[in-house]
Amino acid sequence: MFPLRDQLPTRNFPIVNYVLIVLNILMFFVELTVGLENEQFFREYALIPSNVTNGVGIDDAFDFLTSMFMHAGLAHIAGNMLYLWIFGDNVEDALGHIRYLFFYLAGGVAAAITHIVFDPNSTIPTVGASGAIAAALGAYLILYPQSKVQTIVPVGRAASVTLVPAIFVLGLWFVLQLFQGIASLGVDEEVGGVAVWAHIGGFVFGLALAKLLAKPRSEYGGANFDTGVQRPRLA
Asked: Side-chain half-sphere of 182: how many Cα atoms within 13 Å?
């Protein structure tokens, strides 16, 4: 399945979510400038678990933040930004701009810590916004359980665009991450080059904190939103 958009309008312009998307894209252009194969650059600004477990310095602490805005390639950033664009705006609507920003960053840190706990000796640079975005996905699932997502669903050799409940789209995503995470236990390197435990940690973080941080439901709608109403999209 490939999500395209959700069906929930937002009551406030999601400025923080759009700024996060822009910052990720700008950082990717910086990476293209220095070269995606520039190992020194990635080791300087990416998160390396073994560096943290051997003693956290100021540089290592800064890497928790910088690694969140770095990506390994076009497909990596495109997929992450798509998910952030679809689901992040509604989470920002529910939490408010400032709380959403801190939630997003804290979710990314929680995801990174989870990755380090399960792979403490890894010397592989870890980059990507997916841990923080996973926190937004977990929050979305808790805050908007009745939402539906316009999704490309494979049907035999063809594909169909249909509305799929968010609880199924995001629930299936989490189950796949969990299976991959369990499969990676005892393996020296990440499954498929993906730090799946970061995804799991971020998602659980979002599940746990969404309701605690959200505004009263009357202010953001929650499950009471008419899921048939589509919000405006940027061209």
From this structure: 5
